[in-house]
């Protein structure tokens, strides 16, 4: 898709999401909060996967850092503004990602994937076993906080999630999208694509391959923590299962489902996954099997995902019209 088509998609999506609370039941509006959390995390994940060519199987670790950071900030330290919590968890995640990424980005392919999986499982084991610090399998409570001065405690939870917090998360997604669009279309983004396509040639041309990979890893970790904070805030709990490897698999699933080769593909994948999972869970207990079958069909029939399929249909329609 060309840039004007992407801008049109972004504007259309933003308008539709803005109007959604006015026409949809509160249940479905509340269902969009996890979508916003995953979409923000996937914007960072796709910088690492789609633009740099590094597939992480342990990226849920950063979701956990965001959720547990929100729990510590709100319940343990008593910090009320959610904005301060976002800054804190994104900073903490970036600092943790620096040494982890410095080791991982020295490798590519399956070796990078297995290293990230190992770190993710180590973090999950830490959360699960150190009960006196993390609450173990019970998790940690995320206390109610304020957003832009609005006190959560003054609202009914459903009304708050479907109203002020919904638009707050929409604003965060728009800001994150604009920042990541600028990064992806900057000289740094061009360096990342060069590293992805031919690292040896990129290094010969003067690109610092390891530094670029590490920078992408750190940026993706910060956005992952922001998404995790939103997920933890919605349910009021930081759960160690949020860090389990299956959560990392869900991030990969959403990126592939939407189309990681397109900037908006992972966002489309997050939206499709959130709605599809809810519908399948209400229809059958074998919803995981159904999701797996759908992913297999997408990979085999439409390797560029939903976004790629939409782009191909648009190109065919243009050709037939001319």
3D structure, described in words:
This protein has 322 residues and is mainly α. The chain has a domain at 28-244. Helix content is 77%, strand content 2%. The chain has 15 helices and 4 strands. The strands form 2 sheets. Strands 1-4 form a two-stranded antiparallel ribbon. Strand 2 and strand 3 (150-151) form a beta hairpin. The protein starts with a helix and ends with a helix.
Elements, N to C (H/E): HHHHHHEEEHHHHHEHHHH
Number of helices: 15
Tell me the structural class.
Answer: mainly alpha
Q: Give a short account of the largest sheet.
A: 2 strands, antiparallel
Estimate what percentage of residues fall within beta strands: under 5%
Uncertain stretches of 5 or more adjacent residues:
none
Instruction: Tell me the radius of gyration.
Output: 19 Å
Could you say which overall geometry the principal axes of the C-alpha atoms support? Answer: globular
Number of strands: 4
Order of adjacent strands in the largest pleated sheet: 1-4
The percent range for helix content is over 70%
Alpha-carbon distance between the termini? 18 Å
**Mean pLDDT, all residues:** 88
């Amino acid at each position: 898709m060309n840039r004007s088509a992407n801008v049109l998609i972004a504007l259309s999506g933003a308008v539709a999401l803005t109007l959604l609370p006015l026409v949809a039941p509160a249940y479905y509006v509340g269902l969009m909060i996890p979508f916003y959390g995953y979409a923000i995390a996937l914007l960072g994940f796709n910088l690492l996967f789609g633009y740099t060519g590094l597939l992480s199987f342990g990226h849920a670790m950063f979701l956990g850092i965001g959720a547990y950071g929100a729990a510590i900030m709100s319940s343990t330290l008593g910090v009320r503004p959610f904005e301060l919590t976002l800054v804190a968890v994104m900073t903490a995640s970036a600092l943790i990602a620096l040494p982890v990424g410095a080791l991982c980005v020295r490798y590519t392919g399956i070796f990078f994937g297995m290293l990230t999986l190992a770190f993710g499982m180590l973090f999950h084991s830490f959360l699960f076993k150190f009960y006196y610090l993390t609450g173990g399998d019970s998790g940690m409570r995320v206390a109610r906080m304020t957003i832009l001065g609005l006190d959560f405690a003054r609202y009914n939870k459903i009304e708050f999630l479907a109203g002020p917090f919904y638009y707050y998360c929409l604003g965060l997604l728009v800001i994150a999208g604009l920042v990541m669009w600028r990064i992806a279309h900057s000289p740094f983004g061009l360096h990342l694509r060069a590293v992805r396509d031919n690292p040896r040639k990129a290094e010969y041309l003067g690109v610092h391959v390891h530094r670029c990979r590490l920078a992408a890893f750190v940026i993706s970790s910060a956005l992952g923590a922001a998404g995790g904070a939103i997920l933890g805030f919605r349910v009021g709990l930081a759960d160690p299962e949020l860090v389990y490897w299956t959560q990392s698999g869900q991030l990969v699933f959403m990126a592939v489902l939407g189309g990681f080769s397109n900037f908006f593909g992972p966002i489309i994948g997050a939206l499709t996954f959130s709605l599809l999972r809810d519908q399948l869970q209400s229809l059958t207990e074998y919803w995981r099997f159904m999701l797996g079958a759908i992913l297999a069909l997408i990979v085999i029939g439409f390797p560029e995902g939903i976004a790629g399929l939409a782009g191909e249909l648009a190109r065919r329609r243009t050709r037939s019209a001319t």
